[in-house]
Amino acid sequence: DLVDADDAENGSDDDIIEAGAGDDTVVAGDGNDSVFADESADDVDAGAGDDTVFGGDGADTISGGADDDSLIGQAGADSISGDTGDDFIEGGADNDTLEGGIGNDTLDGGADNDSLDGGAGADSLLGNFGDDTLNGGEGADTLEGGFGDDTFVITDNFGNDQIFGDSDLETNGDTLDLSGVTTGVTVDLSSFNPEDGSITDGTSTADFFDIENIVLSGGNDTITLADGSGVDSVDGFTAPTLVDGVLTGTDQLDVSGLTDAGGDPVNTFDVDRNRHSGRRLWRCHSDLPEWRTDHFDRCRSKRRDHRRTTRSNGHPDLGWHRHRYGR
Known about the structure:
Blueprint: E1 2-4, E2 16-18, E3 25-27, E4 34-36, E5 43-45, E6 52-54, E7 61-63, E8 70-72, E9 79-81, E10 88-90, E11 97-99, E12 106-108, E13 115-117, E14 124-126, E15 133-135, E16 142-144, E17 151-155, E18 162-164, E19 175-180, E20 186-189, E21 197-200, E22 205-209, E23 213-215, E24 222-226, E25 233-235, E26 241-243, E27 246-248, E28 252-257, E29 268-272, E30 282-285, E31 298-301, E32 307-310, E33 321-324
Parallel strand pairs: 1-2, 2-4, 3-5, 4-6, 5-7, 6-8, 7-9, 8-10, 9-11, 10-12, 11-13, 12-14, 13-15, 14-16, 15-17, 16-18, 17-19, 18-22, 19-23, 20-24, 23-25, 24-28, 28-30
Antiparallel strand pairs: 20-21, 21-22, 26-27, 29-30, 29-31, 32-33
């Protein structure tokens, strides 16, 4: 059937629907339908079947329904959902919101600053141009940011993901955001390339590449560092809480894999919180001439030829301490 009207009727066959001018509502019904929106803001429900929808120039809302759909937003700030099935979704121009839903979906943000959510299933997400936000959801997903400063959002049950940043057209770099993970994670940055690494929650492991910034989870995290070139930014260490005279909190930073300028392994020292329960929290680089922390006040070093400086950052129970060891 060929339907060319402002308000298309339900159909159970393989329909071709042209929405026409105006803000239209299209319900395609069952069957393998083809729907063409126009320059206005259209609302399209493709229904069941392997459908193809082109969004047009307006800010369209498109729902693929059941089965395997191809949904293309084109121009306009579109909102597109694949629902169930293995869908292909492309945002096109402008700031689009793409949701894959249930199934093994392929999402392409196109131009501008898009939001991509793969949902459940083994999804493939490409941000393409712009500063995009990508969330693979559950399942073993592949996330590629493309051009711009992209953010990769990781949440609980993230699966064995592959995450690829990109150095092209960046200002601040790509960010791996783990703040949506409620359990503690281990971030391994011991790769030769300091922008590559992996994260694990003990069940799933995600590998990442060309990531400049990391925001930690809300749990007790462990970060492993090693030698490499470049400057890394890691955000998310939670300040300790004073409860009955004891400072609590168990984030850990392990830099024991570092070497000095000559390539020899560095000595390490332990830094403990004042009035802490005794659990060692940090394992640090002892050959640094000065080490500053925000919530610790006691240093013990195997070597006694360097000055150690710690500060409390205004905590009422800690003070500024400077330790100088003689040679």
